[in-house]
Amino acid sequence: MSRVRDGKKLEDILGTFVEQKQLKGGLDKVRVEEAWQNVMGAGVNHYTTNISFRNNCIHVTLSSSVLREELSYGKHKIITILNEHLGSQIIQDIFLK
Predict the structure, then answer these.
(1) Which domain holds residue 51?
(2) Is residue 1 part of a domain?
(3) What is the tens place of the pLDDT at every residue in 44-78?
(4) Is 55 exposed, middle or buried (0-12, 13-18, 19+ CB in 10 A)?
(5) What pTM was computed for the model?
(6) How many domains does the chain have?
């Protein structure tokens, strides 16, 4: 078993690895999808058929037009809550389909 003697934190090493391998986009996608499921709760998740994240926008497909309309009124609040949950300003917009 070898020891790391240069004093780097594992967090820093993993951060560098993620940047070098260009994995940040994929990790953000997974984090945003999980945030949607955790923040929006079981009621909304029941009607959520697809979630995707690209270009700082979350695209959510819902099976209920009534719910889609209801959520569209609170898009800015949803963005704020999701970004707070994620701990950074990743999401810029939400598209509800």
Answers:
(1) 10-96
(2) no
(3) 999 999 999 999 999 999 999 999 999 999 999 99
(4) exposed
(5) 0.76
(6) 1
